[in-house]
Design goal:
The chain contains 15 helices and 17 strands. The protein binds adenosine-5'-diphosphate (ADP) and magnesium ion.
Length: 387
């Protein structure tokens, strides 16, 4: 990466402002999955080892006000568990934050409350950026999953402090670039999820660089309907039918295989019963909720023979166990493949069954939207902003 990382300069005896992405799902005060917290620990430990103090900040969710259910306090407790030291939790940026940061000694760690509690954050407000910057001497960005956001704590702050990439950010960039820059062919992309709108950029890009794009999830339903196939009560984005048609046309003109499911796990919405059914045979009260066994077999075949795999988005409504199989099985096929593989997206990662499956994947990205935009554009605004 063409930006300085924390390894490139000797950062020691400094008050380091560390932007992390601790945007995890918290349900009733409990952290559901702390991958993003765990993956930031190496950077924190490295900076502590070099006699720095830390002022860590992150956002959580999309607060409209100072919503206590979106407090980072549970994260402070989780960090204490992983680091075995006390974390000073500061719940606002007013005077006491700057007083406390002035008194920091090497090894001390402050976690600031959800940075999006400040209305200026998402507007990249300059005075907020300056205020945060005034708390420390150096800025380290380790929040890969937030780097597509032009906010005060990701981009604005870099104007005021020497800034570096953290170890997680550097690893994400290195792994993704390595896979994407000169990908070995055949490149196979698996794209699923609910909304075409979120994934148009990725699909377009993959039509250029992949030989095969395998579609699943709600996205595939819209493509099926665009081709005039009956999809009954399946989730479809009516407003995107024309986009789907033009992507089908683009695929054909680029000679990229854009492949749609051949069967589905189909729910009879009247009777509540589920059965596998070939696409084309759907009745009006039925809905495609996952890819079916024939599609799993077909798609797995492509994955086994791939040299590069890009995977984003679930193949079905995986939150329900009976519709989780398609996503799970294709992730296993990806893990078993010899290909270099990158997999990302909050919902996608949730379908990795166990550690062994995870180990077979070359790079599991902490980024959802950030990973998509990185694949599409090759960089992200908050990475470009590092100096
Ligand atoms: P990611 O977070 O991995 O990028 P998305 O957010 O794009 O994935 O999509 C995840 C959502 O898509 C899930 O909530 C899932 O239930 C939904 N989904 C996928 N396939 C279907 C389907 N066939 N019908 C209804 N919802 C679906
Ligand atoms: Mg999602």
């Amino acid at each position: 990466m063409n930006k300085k990382t924390v390894l490139d300069d000797k950062i020691s005896n400094k008050r380091v402002i560390l932007r992390a992405d601790f945007n995890v799902t918290i349900d009733d005060g409990k952290i559901i999955d702390d991958t993003r917290v765990r993956n930031t620990i190496p950077t924190i430990k490295y900076l502590l080892k070099n006699h720095n103090s830390l002022i860590i900040l992150s956002h959580l969710g999309r607060p409209k006000f100072e919503d206590p259910t979106l407090s980072l306090y549970p994260i402070a407790k989780r960090l204490e568990k992983y680091l075995g030291r006390h974390i000073i939790f500061i719940n606002h940026l007013r005077e006491d934050a700057s007083k406390k940061t002035k008194r920091l000694k090497p090894g001390d760690i402050i976690l600031l409350e959800n940075v999006r509690f400040h209305p200026g954050e998402e507007k990249n407000d300059d005075s907020l950026a300056r205020q945060i910057a005034s708390l420390g001497d150096v800025f380290v960005n380790d929040a890969f999953a937030s780097c597509h956001r032009v906010h005060s704590s990701t981009v604005g702050i870099t104007k005021y402090l020497p800034s570096y990439a953290g170890l997680l950010l550097a690893k994400e960039v290195k792994s993704l670039s390595h896979t994407l820059d000169h990908p070995k062919r055949p490149v196979v992309s698996v794209i699923g999820g609910a909304k075409i709108i979120d994934k148009i950029g990725l699909i377009k890009k993959q039509l250029d660089c992949a030989q095969t794009v395998l579609l699943g999830g709600g996205i595939a339903n819209t493509f099926l309907k665009a081709k005039g196939i009956m999809v009954g009560k399946s989730l479809v984005e009516e407003a995107c039918l024309n986009i789907a048609r033009s992507l089908l046309f683009e695929a054909a003109s680029k000679h990229t295989a854009l492949i749609l499911p051949i069967d589905g796990m189909v729910l009879n919405t009247k009777l509540g019963k589920v059965h596998p059914l070939e696409i084309g045979n759907l009745q009006k009260d039925e809905a495609i909720m996952d890819i079916g066994p024939l599609t799993i077999e077909l798609y797995s075949e492509y994955l086994v023979n791939a040299q590069t795999i890009i995977f984003n988005g679930p193949m079905g409504k995986y939150e329900e166990k009976r519709f989780a199989k398609g996503t799970k099985q294709l992730i296993v096929a990806t893990s078993n493949s010899q290909a270099l593989s990158v997999l990302g997206g909050g919902d996608t990662i949730a379908s990795i069954a166990n550690k062994k499956v995870a180990e077979g994947i070359t790079h599991i990205s902490t980024g959802g939207g950030a990973m998509l935009e990185f694949i599409e554009k090759g960089s992200l605004p908050a990475i470009d902003a590092l100096n």
